[in-house]
Amino acid sequence: MGFAASVTPTIIRAQNRDLDTVEWDYVIIGAGTAGLPTAIFASRRGARVLLIDAADSVGGTMHLANGQVSAGGTILQEAKGIVDSPDKHFEDIMRMTDGLADENVVRQTVDNAPDTINWLLRGGLIPLDDHPVTGSSPGRECYRTPRYLWGANAGRDILAVVLKELQPELDSGRVVTQLSSPVTELIVSDKGDIAGVRAQTPHGERVFRGRHVLITTGGYANNPDLFQDLIGQPTYTTGPHPHNLGKGLELALSVGGTLRGQELHRSGTGSILDAASYPTRVITRFETVPQTRMPWEIWVNNEGSRFIREDEPIQETHAALLAKQDKFRYAIVFDSDIFESSPPGIPGWSREQMRIQFNIHPMFHMADSLDQLAEMVEISALGLRRSVRDYNRSVETGSDDLGRAYFPRKIHEAPYYAIIHHGHSVTSSIGITVDDDFRVVRENGEPIKNLYAAGEVLGSGVSLGAVFAPGMMLTPALTIGRELGRRLPIGSA
Fold first, then answer.
1. Cis omega (within 30 of 0) on the bond before 343?
2. What is the DSSP string of 151-197?
3. Burial letters 329-364, b for 16+ CB under 10 A, else e
4. How many whole angstroms separate alpha carbon 59 and alpha carbon 426?
5. How many separate domains does the chain show?
6. Residue partners of 77: CB distance under 8 A and separation at least 6
């Protein structure tokens, strides 16, 4: 199962050295998926690296991530006789994302991803026995070549390898960590260059100066207020890393940087939440994949209107249409006949388990009329009545304006039921705009000297577009971080 997830590096803390008197080659804000490989590979070249993080430990989202990575042309593929290449990987990603992923980010990722994955494999990462795979699942696009892999312990398997690789660099003293120290400001020189950072450390406010400052702080998905400001809708769920608060975006904007990816937010296909006060946890979801269970119900938005053919086979189409609905919210509506006749709609739940939730749980509602149901669910009663009327006519005629083809029952027998789904995401689609060298840029495209960004702080949209592209969250962060550690000038170079 690879290295144990409990591997922990020796942490050289700030109080052991006068860190604010050192002129660092790299000052890295964020000791996570992108920041750690940057530090490792920069140190191997002799660079002096300061890793700063607001958390009290390193690793960031690797502690929580599913640990899925992908590359075309790895030693694992070669051992299994799988012929692949970065070009094929690139083509697949751009196909799956409909060309919305950033070509530069994807190109640099796929070209260097084999080296990244081989580094992890040689370092001790052991994929599941049947890997690599294509990532196929009902209703989702997948790779045409098996190149997608992960380990039994998810992101912790990758973190264990990364920490093992980090240890010699910590022991050498070239990499030093400054933890529990949120960065509050980027230091700008008289020439307008970024010269360092100001941080609030356990020992007071300190300034750390460096030749290259890298923002690798992760996203904003754990900051409900910022999420609402950027996306215009609520964030519904807990689950992101607790320090994914958007600080990196704030730092970049403070010195003239810009953001991109506003149009690439992905809300998924929805889940049933635990409470009506947000953010909260996901408890389960209704089965909305027709390849697994055909729909007996209709789905209506806050206007009471159907917004999709419920037997739509492509889940990304479902997600894209949900992202256009008010508050990323919809109700799955049915009647007593459907409830008693259909296969239970919640995987692993019996009909009786579902029944006891109605009018007890805030996402489960039952009423004797459609108007009463609409009031309880807080949707338009007029819209709901129209949607049910039109759907029942479709059942009679076999023709549906939205293209639905499966019509098992009318919705006409009280009591009527609704289960609310909310679209949600733990990733952050919006991020810092960078150039081809990952330098943070101003609105006019001019790079801000000495300031770089990598990882989810770039926005998940740069590598996912508005969909799910297998392995294209961790892989770009690890790979671009690794490349920045290998490329930027150090010392007197």
1. no
2. BTTTHHHHHHHHHHHHHHHHHHTSEEEE-S--EEEEEE-TTS-EEEE
3. bbbbbbbebbbeebebbbeeeeeeebeebbeebebb
4. 17
5. 2
6. 83, 84, 132, 146, 147
- Helices then strands, counting H and E runs in the chain, come out as 14, 18
Nearest to 179 by CA among 5, 4, 19, 24: 19
Residue 8 lies in a domain: no
Q: Are strands 447-453 and 204-215 parallel, antiparallel or unpaired?
A: parallel
Tokens of 403: 């293209």
Q: Are residues 190 and 203 in the same domain?
A: yes
Query: What CATH number did the domain enclosing 164 receive?
Result: 3.50.50.60
d(CA 408, CA 346): 18
- CA dist 380 and 304 (Å) reads 5
Outline where 294-380 has alpha helix (H).
315-322, 336-341, 351-355, 370-377
Rounded distance between C-alpha atoms, residue 403 and residue 70, angstroms: 36
For 417-432, give the DSSP string.
Answer: EEEEEE---SS---EE
Q: Mind listing the pLDDT tens digit of every residue in the chain (493 residues)?
A: 233 333 444 343 433 457 778 899 999 999 999 999 999 999 999 999 999 999 999 999 899 888 999 999 999 999 999 999 999 999 999 999 999 999 999 999 999 999 999 999 999 999 999 999 999 888 788 999 999 999 999 999 999 999 999 999 999 999 999 999 999 999 999 998 999 999 999 999 999 999 999 999 999 988 899 999 999 888 888 777 788 889 999 999 999 999 999 999 988 899 999 999 888 899 999 999 999 999 999 999 999 999 999 999 998 899 999 999 999 999 999 999 999 999 999 999 999 999 999 999 999 999 999 999 999 999 999 999 999 999 999 999 999 999 999 999 999 999 999 999 999 988 899 999 999 999 999 999 999 999 999 999 999 999 999 888 999 999 999 999 999 999 999 875 4
Q: Which residues contact 179 (CB under 8 A, 6 or more apart)?
A: 11, 13, 31, 52, 53, 55, 56, 57, 58
| 49, containing H or E segment | strand 49-52
Residues 247 and 335 in one domain: no
Note whether residue 462 is domain-resident.
yes
Q: Would you call 397 helix, strand, or coil by DSSP?
A: helix
Provide the CB-side half-sphere exposure for 116 (13 A, CA). 33
For residues 214 and 312, state if they share a domain: no
| Residue 5 covered by a domain | no
Phi/psi at 321 (5° precision): -70, -35
Closest CA relative to residue 476, chosen from 493, 491, 489, 464: 464
Q: Note the pTM of the prediction, 2 decimals.
A: 0.91
What residues make up the domain containing 438? Answer: 14-262+427-487
Measure CA of the first residue to CA of the last residue in the chain; give whole Å: 41
